[in-house]
Every structure is written in structure tokens, then in C-alpha cells.
Design the sequence.
């Protein structure tokens, strides 16, 4: 039987064809981000053409009916809520990740990990419902009175607490992976010198894992930036720059989600909302690219 | 010397405290939803669509939203498999091992995975405007499919990476093409993992609200066509909560309970399936 | 009886990234004999074997030059069609890798791919090759069970049956007994001795005694170079190269 320069049998053709189609699909899927940026940019072009970028980003005047689109209250709202969430989440998540990686028995780890997966799977609306039922009243009745201020409870703090819980899984998951990737010899070397476990963690393990942990936190921040429904339900949605954590806020994603009904009836409104989505996308892309690059480097350094 | 151990003890205590706190937040959420939702649960909730005056506290249920969510997430999952599985197979079977292109794709999918659902919703909306489509089941399916595609690709990809390369070689050595090897050997070996990935994506599709606000619309009837608007559970919860009538808000809690149970069942099924389907898996 | 050459290698060079793994290899492998490729680990034995059915193609960063003639045709020709080359050669790896399917489907996998669909013919093929691999008696009652449930030794014989079922002319074995217990190894070796009536067999081994027991022809590689090749009796009893002598005595490994 000759096997050289065999004429293309059907199964070879199928293989070649499948390869080409799959390559095409892969390229298309990988380029989806670019397509999204272009699509959103084209839709937000009208508002970008008629307003200066600095006006859009730094004006506090949000009056769509008069054609004024100042995003500052929303940008600040997003930053406040995210800031609170990170302040709450980071210490808790790092302590948990270190505990699970360095101290806990593997059986404990096997129990806790699925629970964190479940937490990650809970839909954001359910977080929102919980926030309205538990966090908002708690702030209104307990937190605000103890500072002798009035608050409806719908506030930056409420949004931050709910958001913190929502980003627990991301930060724990990624930092746990990073910590587990630190080779055991490093720990043993330190322990053998008479260091305690905590000293070893603090001086050696954390130092090695620092870039990866930073990446985990950045991933958490970017998740917090984009979270919509849960935050929207507890944060009050008042388009003013918040002055304290007990003030209401109006983050960008909430702005987009809340106004889908009216946006087509007011000129430029839809364009402004698409711009908000574009801003969100670009900022989150930046954060993601930074943290993924760090993680990639961490992964390579281990191999 | 003493201070060293005091510090050790202090931090260990803090760590355990943090872990307990995080786990109890999960328990607290589940308990709240259960306790608040249970009193308003009824057979009507899961078997009837909203009747006249439902949002004023009259009879009916949210069957429209339950079915709507299942249709929508089901359609989106199918669409995402249709695109995602070939992509993952390409990256692991067809491309040269270690190709830079594959690394770039993985990176791109990881980044895409971090894009929030509201942005997918907005992007889906621009697509729909472009094609002059109205909010509909199809629009929602497309938006959710885009949303879950990157996570589906990456999780299937991770599963396929674990398939031993020798298995592929064994198939090649018998004269199989890459396509035959991919379909008959790789997919079969990775099936449990693939199904888990698919179910997790399905769960995320059911739970997501922000991507469907613009694209799927809302309706009180069960969807009859791809081009009609469709109700979804998260939005049903959201809308009912917005009505200042205790009875309707109570149903919102019950709806949240239904959604949570649905999600828990799916994630449980994912775990069990992964264990069950290992009959033929080689290791 | 004069030996007919089945595979002949001419000026084969293989680079792996910056490493020169095989250097100017020239050799010939006789038809219907057992040829053993021996040498210390890392000397390029496996690479040589994998260049015969072009599985090296799928390794990252590999460059190959030279000619490998099988039945007088150069399989390294970029235009050569790999699936047909591979159909000609059955491959056994160090560890058995049954495909993720039943015992029956494992053996039927190759024939099905190459177009055999009728159940009766497949039944007949499966039985014939399971017998050839001396596995039939152990599995005839449980053909539909997953192949992964077999013992390692049985799995390796299943892999042999699977390879034979595409009716190759050549069997390539990459240390095919190294993961097996002594008894299973013995069975595989016995099967090889039987199979050499119909097949050209090439095995890579680092066990000298195995090469002595099985081989009709020996190829000795050291650090990517061919040191000596020849009929087994001459090779072991009258080696020409000093390096071969030392290797046989166990002075280098």
C-alpha cells in the first residue's frame, strides 16, 4: 500500500476542515473583547462628539433631560462602594486563605472549599435580597444611631458589605492557589531554623506569594467594580457624590441597569449609558490584564 | 520568646475567626432566604403564571419566570457549548503543544471572564439595535451565551489539559486523525469534567440578571417563541421587591428561595455527575 | 536466508530546541525479526522510535532532517500522510493507555476509524486480535466492561491487540514491559516471540537481559549517536566497539 501523497480521503478532509473551522471559532472568541469595545464605542460616539471627555468624567451634573451627562457622582459611587468592600474583604480573605493553606488540616480544606464555591454560585439578586433584609435594617437601626446620624440604611456601607461577601470567593480562591504554589521546601527551610509557623508565613511564604496575592486583590476589585444587581438593591441610588459611608451612592453599573427603560426616549441618553458601559469595560480590562499578567508570571516561575 | 508564641496564637485565632466569619456569612444568607421565603412558598408559586392583579397581591405564581430562566439559560448553554467546546478542543488537540497563540487565547478568555455581566448586557443591547431586534428570548440567549462563553471555554480547557498526552498518541498511533481523536477519545475521557463545566455555566446563566435586563425583557406569560420577551427569575424577584405590598414582597422572598434551591441543585448535580460518569475514564 | 530490510534510516538528525538529540543516524531494521534499541536513558532511543511513526511531530520545538524509509518510501517527506504511516505501525507505550471505552471498543476503535462498520466483522476482528495478544480467554466474558478495569498487564496486552487490529506490518514498543510485573512482562515477551513470524518488531529497552532474550538484531545508541548495530549473537558475543563491550559488562549505564 502506498501511503505517500495519498489522495485526500474524506476523513482527512473532515479533519482539515474541522481544524480550520475550529481555528476560526477560536480566533473569533478570543477577539470578542475587541468587538465589544468597538461596538460600545460606536454607540457612545454621539455623546462623546457633543460633550468633552473632561465634562463627562468630572462634572457632577446629571440631568439627562437637559443633555447634561456628568458621570462623576457615579464614578465616585463605584469607588466608594468598591473601597469599602475591599477594606472589609481583604483582611478576612487573606487570613482565611493563609489558614486554609498553612494551618488547616486537609480535611478542613476539603470541607471549606466547596462551601466557598457555593458562595460563588449564589446569584447576585439573592445577595441583594439578603442585603435588603439584613444589612440595610442593621445599618439603619444599629450602625447609624450609634454614630448619632440618620440613615435609611441604603448606603455605601450596605453596598460595601454585600459586595465584600460577593468577592470573598474570588480573592480566597486565587490567593489560596498562589499560596499553595509556594514550594514546601521554602517553609521547611524556615521552620528548620526554628521559626514559628506564623513567622514562616509572614517572612517567607507571604513574601514569595506577594505578587500573586496582589493579583488576587486586583481581581477582587475588578469584580466589585462591575457587580450590578446586588449593589443596586442596597445602595440607595442617589446621584450625588457620597461624603460618608452612611450616605447613599449610585455606582455606574446601577446607573446602566436602572435606566434601560427610559434611555431610548431621551436624546443621547442611550449613548451616555453605553459610554458608562465602555468606561466600566475599559477600567475592568485594565485591572484584569494587570492581575492576569502577574498570575501568569507567578505560574511560570513555579514551573 | 514568649512574644513569638503570643503572636502565633493571636494570628491563628484571627485566621480561624475570619474563616468562621466567611462561612457563617454563607450560612446567614441561606438561612435568611429560607426563613423569609418559606412562609410564602406555595404550590401556586411554581405551577401558575401571574394572574390578573398578581402584583397587587392577588393569585398566581412565577412559573413564567422559572420556565423563562430555564429556557434562557438552557439555550445560552447550548449555544456556548457549540462554540466553546470546539475552541477548547482546538487549543488542546489541534494546535501545536505550547503554541504562543494558545497562550494568548487563554489570556484573552481569562480577561473576558472578568468582564461584568452588565457590560455583556449593554453589548448585547447594541447588537440587538444593530439587527433591529426587540428584547426577546433570543436576545437574552445571545447575551447570556456571550457571558458564559469565556468561563466555559476556560473550564473545559482546564479539564482537557489533564487528559494524558499518551492517550492522544495511542489514538494517533492507530491512524486516527486529530478530529477523530478529539471526538472519540478526548471528549470521552474528559466527559465528567466537561459536564461539570457546562452545569456550572448553566447555573451562572440562570442566576444572572444584569445581562438580561436589556436583552430579554419581561412578560407574565410563558414564552412561546424565540422572538418574544421572556421573564427570568432574578428579574421577577427584583420587580416583586419593588412593589410596596407585603404580600408581593413576600413572594419575592419565596422566588429568591426557589432560585437559590435551583442553583444549589445544579451545583450538587455537577458534583455528583462528575463522580458518576467516571466509568470509562482512564487513570 | 537473507534478511530483507523493512525500515532504513538515513542521516537522521533530530534537534529538540537547542539540543541535538539524534546525530547522523544510519541503520536498517530487518523484516520479521525483533530488533532491540538499547542504550542508557536519555540517549535518544525513544526519539528514534517515535520518528518511525512520526509521533515526534507532536512534540514541542522539534526539528527533524534526514530520511526514514519504510518499504522504500520516505515517511519524513512533509507530503507524506501521517495517518496512513501510523496505521502501518502498532505502538506500545511504557505504561498501557487504554482508550476511555469498553474492552471491545478499544480493539474495534482502529478498524472502525478505517471504515469497518459491520458488527459481525468487528466481532470477528476483536476476537482474532484479542487471541493474538493472548488476552481472549481472560476477557471473553466481559467485553463490554471498561478497559480501565483490567490489570496493568492485561491492559498492555489489550493495547497490543488494539494496535494489531489495524493490521500493521510493524510493531513498535517503547519499553513496553517496564511498568509491568515480571509475570506480565513474560507473557508480553512470549507474545512478541510468536508475533515475529508475521510482524517486524522494534522495541526500546534499557534492560540488557531482555534484549538478550528477545532480540534478533540490536541497535546500541549512546548520547544520540549510533555506536553499534548488528545481529544479536554477534553483538553480545563479539562486540566490535569498546564502548559496546563496556556497556554489556555494565560498566556504563
Sequence:
Amino acid at each position: 500500500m502506498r501511503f505517500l501523497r495519498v489522495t485526500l480521503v474524506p476523513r482527512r478532509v473532515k479533519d482539515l476542515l474541522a481544524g480550520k473551522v475550529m481555528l476560526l471559532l477560536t480566533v473569533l472568541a478570543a477577539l470578542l473583547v475587541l468587538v465589544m469595545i468597538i461596538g460600545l464605542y460606536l454607540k457612545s460616539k454621539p455623546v462623546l462628539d457633543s460633550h468633552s471627555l473632561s465634562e463627562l468624567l468630572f462634572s457632577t451634573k446629571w440631568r439627562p433631560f437637559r443633555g447634561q451627562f456628568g458621570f462623576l457622582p457615579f464614578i465616585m459611587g463605584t469607588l466608594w462602594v468598591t473601597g469599602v468592600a475591599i477594606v472589609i474583604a481583604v483582611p478576612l480573605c487573606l487570613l482565611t486563605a493563609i489558614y486554609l493553606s498553612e494551618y488547616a488540616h486537609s480535611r478542613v480544606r476539603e470541607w471549606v472549599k466547596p462551601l466557598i464555591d457555593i458562595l460563588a454560585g449564589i446569584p447576585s439578586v439573592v445577595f441583594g435580597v439578603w442585603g435588603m433584609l439584613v444589612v440595610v435594617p442593621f445599618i439603619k437601626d444599629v450602625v447609624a444611631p450609634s454614630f448619632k446620624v440618620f440613615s435609611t440604611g441604603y448606603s455605601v456601607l450596605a453596598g460595601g458589605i454585600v459586595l465584600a461577601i460577593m468577592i470573598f470567593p474570588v480573592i480566597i480562591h486565587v490567593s489560596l492557589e498562589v499560596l499553595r504554589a509556594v514550594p514546601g521546601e521554602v517553609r521547611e527551610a524556615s521552620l528548620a531554623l526554628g521559626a514559628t509557623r506564623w513567622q514562616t508565613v509572614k517572612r517567607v511564604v507571604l513574601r514569595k506569594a506577594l505578587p500573586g496575592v496582589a493579583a488576587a486583590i486586583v481581581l477582587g476589585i475588578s469584580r466589585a467594580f462591575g457587580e450590578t444587581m446586588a449593589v443596586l438593591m442596597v445602595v440607595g441610588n442617589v446621584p450625588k457624590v457620597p461624603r460618608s459611608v452612611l450616605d447613599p451612592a449610585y455606582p455606574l453599573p446601577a446607573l446602566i441597569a436602572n435606566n434601560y427603560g427610559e434611555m431610548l426616549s431621551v436624546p443621547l441618553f442611550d449613548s451616555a449609558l453605553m459610554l458608562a458601559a465602555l468606561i466600566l469595560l475599559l477600567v475592568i480590562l485594565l485591572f484584569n490584564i494587570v492581575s492576569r499578567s502577574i498570575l501568569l508570571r507567578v505560574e511560570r516561575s513555579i514551573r | 520568646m514568649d512574644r513569638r508564641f503570643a503572636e502565633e496564637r493571636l494570628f491563628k485565632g484571627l485566621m480561624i475567626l475570619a474563616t468562621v466569619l466567611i462561612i457563617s456569612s454563607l450560612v446567614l444568607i441561606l438561612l435568611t432566604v429560607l426563613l423569609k421565603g418559606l412562609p410564602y412558598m406555595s404550590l401556586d408559586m411554581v405551577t401558575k403564571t401571574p394572574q390578573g392583579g398578581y402584583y397587587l397581591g392577588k393569585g398566581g405564581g412565577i412559573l413564567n419566570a422559572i420556565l423563562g430562566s430555564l429556557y434562557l439559560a438552557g439555550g445560552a448553554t447550548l449555544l456556548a457549548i457549540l462554540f466553546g467546546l470546539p475552541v477548547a478542543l482546538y487549543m488542546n488537540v489541534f494546535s501545536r503543544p505550547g503554541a504562543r497563540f494558545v497562550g494568548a487565547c487563554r489570556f484573552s478568555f481569562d480577561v473576558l471572564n472578568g468582564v461584568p455581566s452588565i457590560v455583556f448586557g449593554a453589548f448585547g443591547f447594541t447588537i440587538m439595535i444593530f439587527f433591529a431586534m426587540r428584547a426577546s428570548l433570543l436576545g437574552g440567549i445571545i447575551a447570556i451565551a456571550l457571558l458564559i462563553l469565556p468561563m466555559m471555554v476556560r473550564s473545559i480547557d482546564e479539564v482537557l489539559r489533564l487528559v494524558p498526552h499518551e492517550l492522544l498518541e495511542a489514538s494517533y498511533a492507530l491512524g486516527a486523525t486529530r478530529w477523530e481523536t478529539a471526538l472519540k477519545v478526548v471528549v470521552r475521557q474528559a466527559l465528567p469534567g466537561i459536564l461539570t463545566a457546562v452545569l456550572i455555566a448553566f447555573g451562572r446563566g440562570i442566576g444572572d440578571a444584569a445581562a438580561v435586563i436589556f436583552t430579554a425583557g419581561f412578560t407574565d406569560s410563558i414564552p412561546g417563541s424565540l422572538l418574544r420577551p421572556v421573564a427570568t427569575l432574578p428579574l421577577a424577584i427584583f420587580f416583586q421587591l419593588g412593589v410596596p405590598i407585603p404580600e408581593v414582597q413576600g413572594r419575592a422572598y419565596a422566588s429568591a428561595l426557589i432560585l437559590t434551591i435551583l442553583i444549589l441543585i445544579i451545583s450538587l448535580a455537577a458534583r455528583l455527575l462528575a463522580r458518576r460518569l467516571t466509568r470509562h475514564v482512564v487513570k | 536466508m537473507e534478511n530483507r530490510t523493512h525500515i532504513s534510516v538515513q542521516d537522521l538528525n533530530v534537534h529538540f530546541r537547542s539540543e541535538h538529540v539524534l546525530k547522523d543516524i544510519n541503520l536498517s531494521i530487518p523484516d520479521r525479526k525483533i530488533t532491540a534499541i538499547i542504550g542508557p536513558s536519555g540517549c535518544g532511543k525513544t526519539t528514534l522510535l517515535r520518528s518511525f511513526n512520526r509521533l515526534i511531530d507532536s512534540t514541542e520545538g522539534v526539528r527533524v532532517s534526514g530520511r526514514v524509509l519504510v518499504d522504500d518510501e520516505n515517511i519524513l517527506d512533509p507530503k507524506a500522510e501521517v495517518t496512513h504511516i501510523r496505521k502501518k505501525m502498532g505502538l506500545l507505550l511504557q505504561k498501557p493507555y487504554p482508550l476511555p471505552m469498553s474492552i471491545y471498543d478499544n480493539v474495534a476503535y482502529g478498524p472502525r476509524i478505517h471504515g469497518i462498520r459491520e458488527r459481525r466483522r468487528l466481532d470477528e476482528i476483536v476476537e482474532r486480535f484479542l487471541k493474538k495478544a493472548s488476552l481472549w480467554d481472560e476477557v471473553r466474558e466481559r467485553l463490554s466492561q471498561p478497559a480501565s478495569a483490567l490489570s496493568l498487564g492485561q491492559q498492555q496486552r489489550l493495547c497490543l491487540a488494539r494496535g494489531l487490529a489495524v493490521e500493521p506490518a510493524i510493531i513498535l514498543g517503547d519499553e513496553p514491559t517496564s511498568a509491568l510485573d515480571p509475570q506480565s512482562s513474560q507473557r508480553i515477551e512470549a507474545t512478541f516471540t510468536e508475533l515475529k513470524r508475521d510482524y517486524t518488531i522494534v522495541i526500546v529497552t534499557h534492560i540488557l537481559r531482555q534484549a538478550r532474550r528477545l532480540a534478533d538484531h540490536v541497535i546500541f545508541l549512546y548520547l544520540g549517536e549510533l555506536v553499534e548495530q548488528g545481529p544479536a549473537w554477534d553483538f553480545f558475543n563479539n562486540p566490535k566497539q569498546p564502548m559496546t563491550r563496556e556497556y554489556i559488562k555494565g560498566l556504563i549505564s
